[in-house]
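Case study B.
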Amino acid sequence: MTNNPLLEPIHGISLYDYSAANARLANNVPVEDVCKALGIEQPVWEEVNDLWVKRMQEDGEFVVATQMGNYFAQADQHPKLGSLKAAAAAADQGNLQQLAADRYFYEELNGAREAAYEAGLDGAQWILENYGISLGDFQQVAMQWSQVMQQEGYETMNQYLQYRQEKKDEYAARFAEEQGGNVADDIEF
Amino acid sequence: MKEDKPMSFIERMKQTALTQKSYGGEAEIHAAGAQQAACPNCGASRTKNDGLTHCAYCGHAFIETTLTNGRYINKEDNSR
Amino acid sequence: MQELQQHLEATEQRLDAFLVKLTQRAQELLNGFEQEAVNIRRNDTIYGQAYSRFLAATRGQVQKLREKVKEVEETQIMPVFYRHCTQSSLAGFSSMVYEWRNRCQAKILQWEEQLYASESAAIERAEWQDYETVFQSHLQQYHAEKEKVYCKQCGAKLAINQVYYYTVYITCTFCQTQNIFNPGTSARQLEDTARKLAEQRSRPVLEQQQFYQQRERDLYMQAHELQLSLIHEKNNQIIKEKQQAIARLEEQRQEAVVKAPQLMEEYHRSVFDELNNLLPDLREHHEKFYRAITTHYQ
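Model:
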């Protein structure tokens, strides 16, 4: 595909392997399980991990990071890691499918997650507890949507962003109510 | 409303920050330490000369990929 | 017209009072944040997970203050402006409304800038650490811990003669057995701490760079204002003097235009020189990283 030495596999672990592995780790799959599926031991994984990060830092053109994002979106199709799940995770398949198929639902959960962080909650944990979607799955779907967005006109994108903002405001109001209001609610113009 | 602010407001923010579960769990501190790298198949210990990828006794593959030149691990570490 | 003037004045006074109250509240919030941040950080996990949430919540509340002001601008200031700005049949009417709007917006902008500055300053103070001490303590901790690591096969002390940043295979020098050595949390934090320390040491250069960057903007604004004052100027002597002043300001501005990027380059070089001093075994990587950053900047 390319002669870029920055994209050569490290200890036999390609950028696709590495990206899919990160998607699984972000789903709380233990690193031991990822190593086993890739057929390597932990010292090899840790060196691979360190060196891929360093390659991204050394890459002034961001080729590695961009490609990693594309591969991240394809983690489910990875031959060795595609079906790897965290033992405890009973992912809500219905919600996950809706997240990938329904743009409004995707924007809503993005807004909710942003609002959660701004309310001092752990947004990723909040999504997991309330919708059964783990961070790795969420980011994988996000990469898929970002490919759709690249083809999208300004008008369309703006419309979704506005929807996201509306939802964010709704959730922010809800979190504020749960936490006893915002800091300057009593100050009026 | 007024007597609620601002210190008790900060206190509430603090409690929210402290009492929550972090995604992926809390980061733990580990001291430096070693683990045995024996063969899970036949129990034999592994030596530098045998290379890192296969057991010298039973041939079990510890590492199924081919090692390249990294930082601490290199091509020479592939078992022959 | 007089009625409108009164309405505008009253609204502006309300805006002044509103902004003062919000500034006080912001200050209380940020003071509280600073005090509690110390306590939270003291007992936090190594990645500062609780502090991150507390920080995000504080930023979120500051953002709520901004939104409050934005809403007032959109509902109390701009509609009045739009209602009256086109009624230009009356002399002076329109310019009065324009000036009023400009003053209100300038006050809001200044309020936002001050809020941003206090927010950043509070966060910086809350997060400040002497990274010289932190780095040394991580290094000492690692060296102390690695002296107590023994071969899992024969029990001999493992000869670990360097810093390892992640899990590696270590061969026992007595029985040749491979051990899997985990260097521990202190060693894993070294690279990150070294970067923060290198940035801390190079800070004076960055501050100089920021000074020239700001100076460039200030000089531009000064020249711009002089330029505007020329529009209605009739006196040739004053016009000449002002034009000379503008030329001098432009000359100084050009100096800053050249200096700021030079200092940025100097800052990056300084950070990477410090990194090479702190972690000499990573020099090759540091240099490649430096080249990527400078290429990107150019």
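Chain A is about 65% helix and 0% strand. The remaining cases will be described in the next quarterly update.
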